[in-house]
Amino acid sequence: MKPFLFFISLFATILNGYCQTSKEYIKNGKIKVRQQDYKGAIEDYTNAIKIEPENVRAYFNRGLAKDNLQDYTGAIEDYTKAIKIEPENIKAYYNRGLAKDNLQDYAGAIEDYTKALQFSPKEVAALNNRGLSKDKIKDYKGAIEDFSKAIEINPSDSYPFYNRGRSKHKIEDYKGAIDDFSKSIEIQSNNGSAYILRGNSKAGLYEYKSAIEDYAKAIEININDPEAYYNRGLAKANLLDYKGSIDDFSSSIKLNPDEPDAYTFRGLIKAEIHDYSGTIEDLTKSIEINPRNPINYFNRGLAKIKIDQKESACKDFNIAKELGIDVSKQKEQYCK
Protein backbone atom coordinates (compact mmCIF):
# COMPACT_ATOMS: atom_id res chain seq x y z
CA MET A 1 0.00 0.00 0.00
CA LYS A 2 2.86 2.41 0.67
CA PRO A 3 3.89 2.77 -3.01
CA PHE A 4 0.24 3.55 -3.86
CA LEU A 5 0.05 6.25 -1.19
CA PHE A 6 3.29 7.71 -2.45
CA PHE A 7 1.82 7.90 -5.97
CA ILE A 8 -1.29 9.73 -4.72
CA SER A 9 0.87 12.16 -2.79
CA LEU A 10 3.06 12.81 -5.81
CA PHE A 11 0.02 13.30 -8.09
CA ALA A 12 -1.49 15.84 -5.66
CA THR A 13 1.78 17.72 -5.56
CA ILE A 14 1.82 17.93 -9.37
CA LEU A 15 -1.77 19.19 -9.45
CA ASN A 16 -1.12 21.83 -6.81
CA GLY A 17 1.89 23.06 -8.70
CA TYR A 18 0.09 23.24 -12.07
CA CYS A 19 -0.44 26.72 -13.60
CA GLN A 20 -2.40 27.53 -16.74
CA THR A 21 -0.47 29.15 -19.58
CA SER A 22 -1.57 32.33 -21.32
CA LYS A 23 -2.55 30.26 -24.38
CA GLU A 24 -4.83 28.12 -22.23
CA TYR A 25 -6.49 31.18 -20.70
CA ILE A 26 -7.03 32.62 -24.18
CA LYS A 27 -8.49 29.31 -25.37
CA ASN A 28 -10.85 29.18 -22.37
CA GLY A 29 -11.81 32.81 -23.00
CA LYS A 30 -12.82 31.98 -26.57
CA ILE A 31 -14.97 29.09 -25.33
CA LYS A 32 -16.71 31.42 -22.88
CA VAL A 33 -17.32 34.00 -25.62
CA ARG A 34 -19.06 31.31 -27.70
CA GLN A 35 -21.18 30.60 -24.62
CA GLN A 36 -21.85 34.36 -24.30
CA ASP A 37 -20.15 34.39 -20.90
CA TYR A 38 -18.34 37.63 -21.67
CA LYS A 39 -17.47 38.48 -18.06
CA GLY A 40 -15.88 35.07 -17.62
CA ALA A 41 -13.99 35.53 -20.88
CA ILE A 42 -12.66 38.90 -19.70
CA GLU A 43 -11.35 37.24 -16.54
CA ASP A 44 -9.52 34.63 -18.61
CA TYR A 45 -7.99 37.19 -20.95
CA THR A 46 -6.96 39.30 -17.96
CA ASN A 47 -5.19 36.27 -16.46
CA ALA A 48 -3.44 35.70 -19.79
CA ILE A 49 -2.24 39.31 -19.74
CA LYS A 50 -0.91 38.90 -16.19
CA ILE A 51 1.20 35.99 -17.38
CA GLU A 52 2.17 37.59 -20.69
CA PRO A 53 1.73 41.40 -20.55
CA GLU A 54 2.63 41.91 -24.22
CA ASN A 55 0.17 39.35 -25.62
CA VAL A 56 -1.65 41.18 -28.44
CA ARG A 57 -4.30 38.48 -28.86
CA ALA A 58 -5.28 38.67 -25.19
CA TYR A 59 -5.83 42.45 -25.37
CA PHE A 60 -7.65 42.20 -28.69
CA ASN A 61 -9.95 39.40 -27.54
CA ARG A 62 -10.64 41.14 -24.25
CA GLY A 63 -11.62 44.21 -26.25
CA LEU A 64 -14.07 42.08 -28.26
CA ALA A 65 -15.61 40.71 -25.06
CA LYS A 66 -15.98 44.23 -23.66
CA ASP A 67 -17.60 45.30 -26.94
CA ASN A 68 -20.21 42.59 -26.43
CA LEU A 69 -20.95 44.03 -22.99
CA GLN A 70 -21.20 47.52 -24.53
CA ASP A 71 -18.20 48.62 -22.50
CA TYR A 72 -16.88 50.59 -25.46
CA THR A 73 -14.50 52.72 -23.42
CA GLY A 74 -12.88 49.60 -21.97
CA ALA A 75 -12.75 48.02 -25.41
CA ILE A 76 -10.99 51.08 -26.84
CA GLU A 77 -8.38 50.86 -24.09
CA ASP A 78 -7.66 47.23 -24.98
CA TYR A 79 -7.50 47.85 -28.74
CA THR A 80 -5.17 50.80 -28.06
CA LYS A 81 -2.89 48.55 -26.04
CA ALA A 82 -2.91 45.97 -28.83
CA ILE A 83 -1.96 48.69 -31.33
CA LYS A 84 0.85 49.91 -29.08
CA ILE A 85 2.31 46.40 -29.05
CA GLU A 86 1.60 45.76 -32.73
CA PRO A 87 1.29 49.09 -34.61
CA GLU A 88 0.15 47.51 -37.88
CA ASN A 89 -2.73 45.50 -36.40
CA ILE A 90 -5.47 46.28 -38.92
CA LYS A 91 -8.23 44.53 -36.97
CA ALA A 92 -7.41 46.51 -33.82
CA TYR A 93 -7.72 49.82 -35.69
CA TYR A 94 -10.95 48.67 -37.34
CA ASN A 95 -12.54 47.44 -34.12
CA ARG A 96 -11.44 50.54 -32.22
CA GLY A 97 -13.15 52.54 -34.95
CA LEU A 98 -16.36 50.58 -34.38
CA ALA A 99 -16.16 51.18 -30.62
CA LYS A 100 -15.60 54.90 -31.14
CA ASP A 101 -18.55 54.99 -33.52
CA ASN A 102 -20.70 53.44 -30.80
CA LEU A 103 -19.62 56.27 -28.49
CA GLN A 104 -20.53 58.77 -31.25
CA ASP A 105 -16.89 59.76 -31.64
CA TYR A 106 -17.27 59.77 -35.40
CA ALA A 107 -14.11 61.80 -36.10
CA GLY A 108 -12.09 59.32 -34.03
CA ALA A 109 -13.73 56.41 -35.81
CA ILE A 110 -12.87 57.90 -39.21
CA GLU A 111 -9.22 58.26 -38.12
CA ASP A 112 -9.06 54.58 -37.15
CA TYR A 113 -10.73 53.33 -40.32
CA THR A 114 -8.33 55.51 -42.31
CA LYS A 115 -5.37 54.00 -40.46
CA ALA A 116 -6.64 50.49 -41.19
CA LEU A 117 -6.97 51.42 -44.85
CA GLN A 118 -3.37 52.65 -44.95
CA PHE A 119 -2.27 49.10 -44.22
CA SER A 120 -5.01 47.43 -46.29
CA PRO A 121 -6.42 49.82 -48.96
CA LYS A 122 -8.94 47.29 -50.25
CA GLU A 123 -10.57 46.56 -46.90
CA VAL A 124 -14.23 46.90 -47.93
CA ALA A 125 -15.57 46.81 -44.37
CA ALA A 126 -13.32 49.71 -43.36
CA LEU A 127 -14.40 51.75 -46.40
CA ASN A 128 -18.06 51.00 -45.75
CA ASN A 129 -17.87 51.89 -42.07
CA ARG A 130 -15.81 55.02 -42.70
CA GLY A 131 -18.53 56.03 -45.13
CA LEU A 132 -21.17 55.47 -42.47
CA SER A 133 -19.24 57.61 -39.98
CA LYS A 134 -18.87 60.38 -42.57
CA ASP A 135 -22.60 60.18 -43.25
CA LYS A 136 -23.28 60.70 -39.54
CA ILE A 137 -21.28 63.95 -39.52
CA LYS A 138 -23.13 65.00 -42.70
CA ASP A 139 -20.10 64.62 -44.94
CA TYR A 140 -22.30 63.03 -47.58
CA LYS A 141 -19.85 63.66 -50.44
CA GLY A 142 -17.07 61.89 -48.51
CA ALA A 143 -19.43 59.07 -47.57
CA ILE A 144 -20.49 58.54 -51.19
CA GLU A 145 -16.82 58.43 -52.24
CA ASP A 146 -16.09 55.70 -49.69
CA PHE A 147 -19.12 53.62 -50.65
CA SER A 148 -18.16 53.99 -54.32
CA LYS A 149 -14.63 52.71 -53.61
CA ALA A 150 -16.11 49.75 -51.73
CA ILE A 151 -18.35 49.00 -54.71
CA GLU A 152 -15.37 49.11 -57.10
CA ILE A 153 -13.56 46.53 -54.98
CA ASN A 154 -16.56 44.25 -54.45
CA PRO A 155 -19.55 45.01 -56.69
CA SER A 156 -21.41 41.93 -55.42
CA ASP A 157 -21.79 43.36 -51.90
CA SER A 158 -25.25 44.86 -51.44
CA TYR A 159 -24.48 47.04 -48.42
CA PRO A 160 -22.28 49.72 -50.06
CA PHE A 161 -25.04 50.23 -52.67
CA TYR A 162 -27.61 50.45 -49.88
CA ASN A 163 -25.53 52.90 -47.87
CA ARG A 164 -24.64 55.03 -50.88
CA GLY A 165 -28.34 55.22 -51.67
CA ARG A 166 -29.03 56.52 -48.15
CA SER A 167 -26.42 59.26 -48.53
CA LYS A 168 -27.69 60.23 -51.99
CA HIS A 169 -31.22 60.48 -50.63
CA LYS A 170 -30.01 62.93 -47.98
CA ILE A 171 -28.61 65.27 -50.63
CA GLU A 172 -31.89 64.89 -52.56
CA ASP A 173 -30.32 62.90 -55.38
CA TYR A 174 -33.43 60.75 -55.41
CA LYS A 175 -32.85 59.24 -58.84
CA GLY A 176 -29.29 58.20 -57.90
CA ALA A 177 -30.60 56.82 -54.61
CA ILE A 178 -33.28 54.78 -56.41
CA ASP A 179 -30.63 53.30 -58.72
CA ASP A 180 -28.49 52.29 -55.75
CA PHE A 181 -31.37 50.80 -53.76
CA SER A 182 -32.45 48.89 -56.87
CA LYS A 183 -28.94 47.44 -57.24
CA SER A 184 -28.91 46.52 -53.55
CA ILE A 185 -32.27 44.77 -53.95
CA GLU A 186 -31.01 42.96 -57.06
CA ILE A 187 -28.16 41.50 -54.97
CA GLN A 188 -30.19 40.91 -51.80
CA SER A 189 -33.90 40.73 -52.58
CA ASN A 190 -35.08 40.08 -49.00
CA ASN A 191 -33.88 43.40 -47.56
CA GLY A 192 -37.10 45.11 -46.56
CA SER A 193 -35.31 48.30 -45.54
CA ALA A 194 -34.00 48.76 -49.09
CA TYR A 195 -37.59 48.68 -50.40
CA ILE A 196 -38.67 51.22 -47.77
CA LEU A 197 -35.82 53.59 -48.59
CA ARG A 198 -36.37 53.21 -52.34
CA GLY A 199 -40.01 54.01 -51.68
CA ASN A 200 -38.97 57.13 -49.76
CA SER A 201 -36.80 58.27 -52.67
CA LYS A 202 -39.68 57.68 -55.10
CA ALA A 203 -41.91 59.73 -52.81
CA GLY A 204 -39.28 62.47 -53.02
CA LEU A 205 -39.95 62.47 -56.79
CA TYR A 206 -43.74 62.43 -56.13
CA GLU A 207 -43.97 58.88 -57.51
CA TYR A 208 -46.38 57.84 -54.78
CA LYS A 209 -47.97 54.86 -56.54
CA SER A 210 -44.59 53.28 -57.18
CA ALA A 211 -43.52 54.13 -53.62
CA ILE A 212 -46.60 52.33 -52.28
CA GLU A 213 -45.59 49.24 -54.25
CA ASP A 214 -42.19 49.28 -52.54
CA TYR A 215 -43.72 49.69 -49.08
CA ALA A 216 -46.07 46.82 -49.84
CA LYS A 217 -43.10 44.65 -50.79
CA ALA A 218 -41.37 45.57 -47.52
CA ILE A 219 -44.52 44.53 -45.64
CA GLU A 220 -44.57 41.27 -47.56
CA ILE A 221 -41.01 40.61 -46.36
CA ASN A 222 -41.79 41.65 -42.78
CA ILE A 223 -45.45 42.03 -41.88
CA ASN A 224 -44.47 43.49 -38.50
CA ASP A 225 -42.44 46.46 -39.77
CA PRO A 226 -44.09 49.65 -38.43
CA GLU A 227 -41.95 51.90 -40.64
CA ALA A 228 -43.31 50.34 -43.83
CA TYR A 229 -46.92 50.96 -42.77
CA TYR A 230 -46.06 54.48 -41.60
CA ASN A 231 -44.46 55.49 -44.90
CA ARG A 232 -47.19 53.85 -46.95
CA GLY A 233 -49.68 55.84 -44.90
CA LEU A 234 -47.90 59.06 -45.89
CA ALA A 235 -47.87 58.08 -49.57
CA LYS A 236 -51.57 57.18 -49.54
CA ALA A 237 -52.37 60.52 -47.91
CA ASN A 238 -50.59 62.29 -50.77
CA LEU A 239 -52.85 60.37 -53.17
CA LEU A 240 -55.88 61.48 -51.08
CA ASP A 241 -56.59 57.87 -50.08
CA TYR A 242 -57.47 58.94 -46.55
CA LYS A 243 -59.11 55.70 -45.44
CA GLY A 244 -56.12 53.66 -46.61
CA SER A 245 -53.79 56.13 -44.98
CA ILE A 246 -55.59 55.94 -41.62
CA ASP A 247 -55.56 52.13 -41.80
CA ASP A 248 -51.78 52.11 -42.36
CA PHE A 249 -51.06 54.57 -39.56
CA SER A 250 -53.24 52.43 -37.29
CA SER A 251 -51.21 49.35 -38.22
CA SER A 252 -47.99 51.24 -37.55
CA ILE A 253 -49.28 52.40 -34.16
CA LYS A 254 -50.32 48.88 -33.22
CA LEU A 255 -46.78 47.68 -33.88
CA ASN A 256 -45.06 50.71 -32.35
CA PRO A 257 -47.41 52.55 -29.97
CA ASP A 258 -44.68 54.92 -28.77
CA GLU A 259 -44.09 56.72 -32.07
CA PRO A 260 -45.68 60.21 -31.72
CA ASP A 261 -45.56 61.14 -35.42
CA ALA A 262 -47.84 58.24 -36.38
CA TYR A 263 -50.54 59.65 -34.08
CA THR A 264 -49.89 63.16 -35.41
CA PHE A 265 -50.32 62.21 -39.06
CA ARG A 266 -53.31 59.97 -38.41
CA GLY A 267 -54.86 62.88 -36.53
CA LEU A 268 -54.22 65.29 -39.40
CA ILE A 269 -55.74 62.85 -41.91
CA LYS A 270 -58.82 62.51 -39.70
CA ALA A 271 -59.17 66.29 -39.89
CA GLU A 272 -59.30 65.97 -43.70
CA ILE A 273 -62.40 63.80 -43.37
CA HIS A 274 -63.83 66.15 -40.69
CA ASP A 275 -63.37 63.69 -37.83
CA TYR A 276 -62.20 66.45 -35.49
CA SER A 277 -62.83 64.48 -32.30
CA GLY A 278 -60.57 61.76 -33.70
CA THR A 279 -57.99 64.42 -34.58
CA ILE A 280 -58.01 65.76 -31.04
CA GLU A 281 -57.70 62.27 -29.60
CA ASP A 282 -54.68 61.43 -31.78
CA LEU A 283 -52.91 64.74 -31.24
CA THR A 284 -53.46 64.40 -27.50
CA LYS A 285 -51.78 61.01 -27.59
CA SER A 286 -48.89 62.42 -29.58
CA ILE A 287 -48.53 65.24 -27.03
CA GLU A 288 -48.46 62.71 -24.19
CA ILE A 289 -45.47 61.03 -25.83
CA ASN A 290 -43.73 64.25 -26.91
CA PRO A 291 -45.03 67.33 -25.08
CA ARG A 292 -42.45 69.65 -26.70
CA ASN A 293 -43.84 69.66 -30.27
CA PRO A 294 -45.66 73.00 -30.76
CA ILE A 295 -47.29 71.92 -34.04
CA ASN A 296 -49.45 69.38 -32.20
CA TYR A 297 -50.84 72.01 -29.83
CA PHE A 298 -51.47 74.37 -32.74
CA ASN A 299 -53.32 71.75 -34.81
CA ARG A 300 -55.24 70.47 -31.80
CA GLY A 301 -56.33 74.04 -31.17
CA LEU A 302 -57.60 74.32 -34.75
CA ALA A 303 -59.52 71.04 -34.38
CA LYS A 304 -61.10 72.26 -31.14
CA ILE A 305 -62.24 75.44 -32.90
CA LYS A 306 -64.08 73.22 -35.40
CA ILE A 307 -66.15 71.64 -32.62
CA ASP A 308 -66.67 74.94 -30.77
CA GLN A 309 -64.20 74.37 -27.93
CA LYS A 310 -62.73 77.86 -28.17
CA GLU A 311 -61.56 78.22 -24.57
CA SER A 312 -59.63 74.96 -24.69
CA ALA A 313 -58.35 75.83 -28.18
CA CYS A 314 -56.94 79.13 -26.92
CA LYS A 315 -55.06 77.28 -24.19
CA ASP A 316 -53.46 75.13 -26.90
CA PHE A 317 -52.56 78.23 -28.93
CA ASN A 318 -50.91 79.74 -25.83
CA ILE A 319 -48.79 76.61 -25.31
CA ALA A 320 -47.85 76.59 -29.00
CA LYS A 321 -46.76 80.22 -28.63
CA GLU A 322 -44.63 79.38 -25.58
CA LEU A 323 -42.95 76.63 -27.63
CA GLY A 324 -42.08 79.03 -30.45
CA ILE A 325 -44.96 79.22 -32.95
CA ASP A 326 -46.51 82.50 -34.08
CA VAL A 327 -50.21 82.14 -33.28
CA SER A 328 -51.09 85.84 -33.24
CA LYS A 329 -53.56 85.46 -36.11
CA GLN A 330 -55.46 82.61 -34.42
CA LYS A 331 -55.49 84.34 -31.02
CA GLU A 332 -56.80 87.54 -32.56
CA GLN A 333 -59.52 85.65 -34.42
CA TYR A 334 -60.67 83.19 -31.74
CA CYS A 335 -59.37 84.27 -28.34
CA LYS A 336 -60.62 87.81 -27.78
Concise account of the structure shown:
By secondary structure, the chain is mainly alpha-helical. It contains 20 helices and no strands.
Keywords:
single chain; 336 residues; mainly alpha; 20 helices; 0% strand; elongated
Helices and strands, with pairings:
Blueprint: H1 2-16, H2 22-34, H3 38-51, H4 56-68, H5 72-85, H6 90-102, H7 106-119, H8 124-136, H9 140-153, H10 158-170, H11 174-187, H12 192-204, H13 208-221, H14 226-238, H15 242-255, H16 260-272, H17 276-289, H18 294-306, H19 310-322, H20 328-334
Helix pairs in contact: 2-3, 2-4, 3-4, 4-5, 5-6, 6-7, 7-8, 8-9, 8-10, 9-10, 10-11, 10-12, 11-12, 12-13, 12-14, 13-14, 14-15, 15-16, 16-17, 17-18, 18-19, 19-20
Radius of gyration of CA atoms, rounded to a whole number: 29 Å
Largest sheet: none
What separation lies between the terminal Cα atoms? 110 Å
Residue share in β-strands: under 5%
Query: What percentage of residues falls in helices of 4 or more residues?
Result: over 70%
Please give the count of helices. Answer: 20
The outline comes out as: elongated
Describe the structure.
- The protein is mostly helical and 336 residues long.
- It has 20 helices and no strands.
- It has helices at 2-16, 22-34, 38-51, 56-68, 72-85, 90-102, 106-119, 124-136, 140-153, 158-170, 174-187, 192-204, 208-221, 226-238, 242-255, 260-272, 276-289, 294-306, 310-322, 328-334.
- Helix 7 packs antiparallel against helix 8, helix 12 runs parallel beside helix 14 and helix 14 (226-238) runs antiparallel to helix 15 (242-255).
